[in-house]
């Protein structure tokens, strides 16, 4: 998806050497990609850009928070995200972005849009299983958690169904000396 010229880096006019670009990413950025998993986003992206005579090197670093819903309780919370991506841009006959770390731009191209790379880096920085920190430390009090605890199998019932012969076999493992 190509949008907003603010994510275009006009590398043709830059001198060879190191440059830095900084972006403040919020939820409207993700709306342009029609991505609705985040309730809100506040992520700072810094791109270390190095122009060389025959290629470009980009180092993306992202740090911030995205507000997401917990997978267990559906309660919203701020998830810390950190992302890093290295990209090398070379020049060739035809455009090729099949590799995650190498982009080939046609000769004569003078700008590079980095929005897609920023989007992918942030989305992939969010854990696959999103768990509210209040669930981990026991401080979250919600009706859904009470219902989950109520419906979960009782541990004492599981232990009483275990054949006592297994206890004797377990002693063999612990008595190794």
Rg value: 25 Å
Number of domains: 2
Question: How large is the count of helical segments?
Answer: 6
- Order of strands, widest sheet: 2-3-4-5-6
Structural class: alpha+beta
Number of E-type strands: 7
Shape: elongated
Query: What would the average pLDDT be, to the nearest integer?
Result: 85
SSE order: EEHEEEEEHHHHH
Please summarize the sheet with the most strands: 5 strands, mixed
Helix content: 25-40%
What is the straight-line distance between the termini? 64 Å
The low-confidence parts are none
Beta-strand content: 35-45%
Question: Secondary-structure map with pairings?
Answer:
Elements: E1 8-9, E2 17-26, H1 27-32, E3 40-51, E4 55-69, E5 76-92, E6 102-106, E7 112-113, H2 115-125, H3 133-137, H4 143-151, H5 155-160, H6 165-174
Parallel strand pairs: 5-6
Antiparallel strand pairs: 1-7, 2-3, 3-4, 4-5
Description of the structure:
With 177 residues, the chain is an alpha+beta fold. The chain folds into 2 domains: 5-137, no CATH class; 143-174, no CATH class. It is built from 6 helices and 7 strands. It has helices at 27-32, 115-125, 133-137, 143-151, 155-160, 165-174, and strands at 8-9, 17-26, 40-51, 55-69, 76-92, 102-106, 112-113. The protein has a 5-stranded mixed β-sheet with strand order 2-3-4-5-6. It has a two-stranded antiparallel sheet with strand order 1-7. Strand 3 (40-51) and strand 4 (55-69) form a beta hairpin. The chain is elongated. The termini are far apart.
């Amino acid at each position: 998806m190509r949008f907003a010229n603010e994510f275009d880096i006009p590398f043709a006019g830059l001198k060879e050497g190191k440059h830095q670009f900084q972006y403040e990413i919020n939820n409207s950025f993700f709306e342009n990609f029609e991505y609705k998993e985040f309730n809100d986003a506040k992520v700072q992206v810094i791109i270390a850009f190095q122009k060389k005579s025959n290629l470009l090197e980009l180092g993306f670093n992202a740090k911030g928070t995205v507000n997401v819903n917990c997978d267990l309780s559906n309660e919203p919370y701020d998830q810390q995200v950190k992302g890093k991506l290295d990209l090398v841009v070379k020049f060739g006959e035809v455009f090729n972005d099949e590799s995650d770390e190498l982009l080939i731009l046609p000769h004569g191209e003078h700008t590079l849009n980095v929005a897609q790379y920023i989007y992918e880096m942030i989305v992939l920085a969010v854990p696959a299983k999103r768990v509210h920190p209040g669930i981990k430390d026991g401080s979250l009090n919600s009706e859904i958690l009470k219902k989950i605890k109520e419906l979960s199998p009782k541990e004492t019932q599981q232990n009483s169904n275990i054949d006592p012969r297994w206890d004797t076999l377990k002693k063999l493992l612990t008595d190794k000396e």
